[in-house]
Every structure is written in structure tokens, then in C-alpha cells.
Amino acid sequence: MLLPFVISGLALGSVYALSGVGIVVLFRATGVLNLAYGAIGALSALVAWQLIEDGQSPGLAYAVAPALAAVLSGLYGRLLSPLVARRDPLVKAVCTLGFALVLLGFCFWYWSDDPRTLSLPTDEFGWDVGSARVTGTQAFAFLLAVGLTVAAAILLRRSRMGTQMRALAGDREISALLGVRILRVETVAWVVSGAVAGITGLVLADLTRLEAGTLTFLVIASLAAGVVGRFRSIGVTLAGGLAVGLLEGIGGAFTTVAPYRAVAPFAVAVLVILWLQRRSARARRGSTVEIRSAESAATATAHPQPPGDWRRVLWVALALLAGTAVLAVVVPMVADGYWVRVITSAAIFAVPSAGIGLLYGRLGLVSLGQVALLGVGGWVALRLSFATELPFPLVVLLAGAATCLVGIVYGLPALRLSGIDLALVTLMAGGAFQVAFNAAGFPDGGGGFLGRVAGEVQRSMPRPSFAASDSAYFRLTIVCAVLALILVLVHQRRRAGRAWAAIRESEAGALATGIAITRYKLWAFALAAFITGVAGAFLAANSGRLDPIAFRASDSVLLFAVVLIGGAYGLTGAIVAGVMGQILPAVLDSVGINGNLILVVFGIGLMHALITAPRGIGGQLEGLAALLRPKRRDPDPVPEAEPETEAVGAK
């Protein structure tokens, strides 16, 4: 009975293991968590498909595609990776995300996002095992995963190059002193990783589907295998990938859990990270106080502006309100209904961007699940709107409150996690919400807990009577968005902002001054989640219904990238992020330019922000405004008193 699901699970586990082992090999060699691994594989598969479509022999296509992937990966490792080599592992990982966006944008631009089919020669044969059939590609994937694991282990443990790679990952400076040619070793590691990613992409395209977005972000689920192996043990990574795939495959045999079986990799990854962190905490207990500094190389190159006095906060609030008044009058006059809705979306997305900026800019914490929280707010708002007669403002506040509770649960891991561990936990949680949204859907006017209709006409969430038109709803949205930004600004000015600044500089120092670190961290997560939930409610009412495809884990990653480009250290960056994420793609479409090229722009902008402009566009605009601001004249200096001297010989 379970045999077909077991075989399917092992095949899926081979997919996870293939990607996981490839990622771990590069991590052990260079210390870089390569989030572009899937994009490199996707490009390889699409190149092979294109060559075959153009009449080239499949053998040539399957050889050229991985070679091209190796060249691209090597170029990144040679030219860009050294620029962030001394930075925090999180910065290195996010920089590879920029590379992934560049490759993904190119794939979407050249091949579009239509799914295609790539059939390897191994599809032509297979074996019957009981009531199930094992295809040649499934067997090839399993053998490739095992073979790659063995080859990587031999490379790292038995070869001189492998020893140099491990030494380089352990300590770059000492490796250089010992005579390791750093650039050469790193380039070799990137080239090998790229070739493996190219081959993996060919197999994944056959086993899943040939679509750039799917293959690129399949790396998120595949990270679960690397997490199980702690990004150190290649053998455990292989076993972890197979186990996760097996768990997910067997879940399909049970009707009640089948729709949610894809949660398996995300749930396993979160549980493993929390368990390992707990073990590490126990190991450290008794030696030193378990306090970490939130300051890290990830944020050490840029600091948020100091809270400032109330007069400055008042001026910022007045500027926001004045800008809101101008937009509320001008936009409905000069823009048609389409552009009014686009600008409304930009105002909505500026709010979760401010939440990401609050966590990253003020505390150095990375949340890659903010779009999932946006979906939670929208789900609650839709359900309350259809099930009750509550007024719109109360629905919005309740949606924010419910999301706030979820945000506190999100924030609980932050008490012990930071850096890339926290980013992975929030990313996996976002992936779990994505699966839940796909399985349960968003309420559309039906009954029961899920609120889904069956065979009936779907309903749309009503807007308030005073904001029924697009123009009126835009005015309401922009006013509430500005109020949310002012709420964040006021928190930064008051006691919470001072506590966040102290925690960011040094948790030990903050604790010594009596600051409750746990409370203020949860406070930040709760505030960010509340305003994001409110934004989700406005997003639901803007379109009337929500689609699960808009709340993928990859969208959270993309939103985080846009926030870093816009600037995570001030409210200007949140506004810039909303404009870049929503208005810029629409502008490109309107002038006849493929909107997918915006991903290329985002990728280049993200790498530029990480390497040379950590304060982002918003920080640069604020710096320019500071230069243009008239300087305050210093009061007349007090003349120094002349020293009293005594004449020689005078008394």
C-alpha cells in the first residue's frame, strides 16, 4: 500500500539531497551559503532545453549546460564573492541572493515563466517494484546523490585542495598566512559547485518541472537537508534529505495530512535548528554568561540614525502628513483607476517594509517571513469580514492583533537565535505558511472555519462605505500607512527605541544597564507583525480576494531584498521599497519593457547595497537632505580668558 509513496518520497528526497549536498560542499569550502544554487541549476536546465529545441544533439546540450553553469558560478566566486569575504555569513548569503535574482530575471526575460518539459534519456527505461514503478531518472537521482556525497567526502578529506578548502572556511586570515592561495581555492570551489548545480538542475527539471522560479526557490526546501547536517556533515545531509523526502512522500498516503505534506522540510528544519541551539546553550551554560552581541559584521558597516529629539520627530511626522495630503489630492486627479490601485499597493507594502527595517535596522534581526505575516493579516480580515458584521476599522485592528500574536511566536526563536539561524527559521516558517495557504486557501464567503465556498459564487471583502471607490480607498490607505509609519517612528523615539539601540550595540551592556532584552525583542517582533497584519487587511480589501500564489516564501525573500536596496535604517527606505516593489514593475510594463527585468535590477541593486551602500537609497537620500539642510549657527564662542601671568620678580 505504501510502496508507491515510499518510492516517490525517496525520489523527492534525492532531489533535496542533491541540492543540499551541493550547498554544503560550497559552505564547507568557502563559508558561503549559496542561495543562488537553484538559479544556477535553472539556467543550466533552460540552456539545455534551448539547445535541444534548436536542433543540437542532447549529448552536447547536457555537456554545455553544466559547463556554462560552472563558468557563471566561477565568475561570481572570482569577482564578487571576495568583496564580501570578510563580512558576516548572513551578508554573504544575501549577496548570493542578489546573484540569484539576476539569473532569475534573465531566465524570465528570455524564456518567460511558462513551464516546459525536459526529458532525460533515463526516462526511457524503468523497473516494476511490486505495485510501483521506478523510472531510470529516479534511480539516477538517487545514485547521483550518493555518488556526489562520496566524491565530495573524498575531495574534502583526501585531497590537498580539499584540505585547503576546509582551512579556508575555518579561518581565512590564518589560511593566507599558511600559504593557501585564497582566490584560486575559492574560485575552484565555486566552479565545482556551479558544475554540480548545473547537473542537479537537469535532474530536478526532469523530476519536477522546467520552470525557472520553481527550480530557483526549490533551494529553500532543500536547505532543510543542509540544516539537518548542520552544513558540516555531507553524509548526514544526504540522510537528512532522503528522510525529509520520505516523510513528505509517505504523508501523501493519508488523506487528512496529504494537502499539508509539503510542510515536512520546513518543519524539520525549524525543529532541528531550535534543538541544536538548545544543545549549544546547554554546552555554554556554566562557563560564561549566555549573552550575545547583536552587533555583527552584518550590520556593523551601517547604523540607524539616532532617535533624535521630539522636535525632529515632529518635523518628520508633519512632513509625512503633508506629503500624504498632497498625494491624496494629486494622485486621483492625474491617475486612472489602474494606477490608483498600483499606488495603493505601494502604500500598503511600505508598511511591512517598515517592519523589516525595524527588525534589521534597529536590532540586526533578519525576518524572511514578513509576506507570510501579511497573508495572515489578510486571512483574518477576510474571515472576520465574511463571518461578522464588524465595522471595517475594527476588522483591521483585529487582523493586526491576531498577526501580532503570530509575530510573537515568530519572535520567540529570536531570544536565542540571530544571524543566519534566525533568517533560516523565519524563512522555513514562511514556507510552512505558504503550504498552509495553498492547502486551505483564503476565505471567499463560505462557512466553517476556512470560509471557503463550494460551487457557489465567491464573495469579495467589502470596503467601508466612505471608501468604496478606488480614489477614496487610496486616500484611506495612504493615511493609515502614514499613521503606521509614525507609530514606528514614535516607538523609536521613546524608551523602546533607546532599548533597541542599546541591545543592538551590545546585549551584555544592555543587560548591565537593566534593559529587559527578551521583552524588548518581542516588543519589536510584535510591533512589526501588528503593522504588517494591518497592511494585510488593507491588501485584502483592496482587491476583495487574495490568492495564495502571492504569499510564497520566495516573495518574503524578494521583499527583504527590496528593503535592503531601499534602506533598512529609516522610514525613507520603507517608502522607497514600496515604490520599487510595486510601481516600478508596472512602469516597465506600461512602456513595453518586460517587467521581469526588474528582478535583474533588484539583484544588481541588492549586491550594490551590500558591497558599497549599506544604508540603501533611503539612507543616501537622507544624507543628501542633511547636506542641503541649513546649518545651525553656533553661538558666539566665549573668548578664552587670558592666563594670568606674573611679572618676573613681582609678587
From TrEMBL:
It is a multi-pass membrane protein. It is found in: Cell membrane. The keyword Lipid metabolism does not apply. One of its GO terms (cellular component) is plasma membrane. Its main location: membrane. The keyword Transmembrane applies. Signal peptide: none annotated. Residues 631-651 are annotated as: Disordered. The chain crosses the membrane at residues 6-27, 34-52, 58-77, 89-111, 139-156, 182-204, 210-229, 236-254, 260-276, 313-332, 338-360, 367-386, 392-415, 422-442, 472-490, 522-541, 557-579, 591-611. One of its GO terms (molecular function) is branched-chain amino acid transmembrane transporter activity. Keywords: Cell membrane, Membrane, Transmembrane, Transmembrane helix. Pfam families: BPD_transp_2. This is ABC-type branched-subunit amino acid transport system permease subunit. It comes from Sphaerisporangium siamense. The lineage of its organism: Bacteria, Bacillati, Actinomycetota, Actinomycetes, Streptosporangiales.
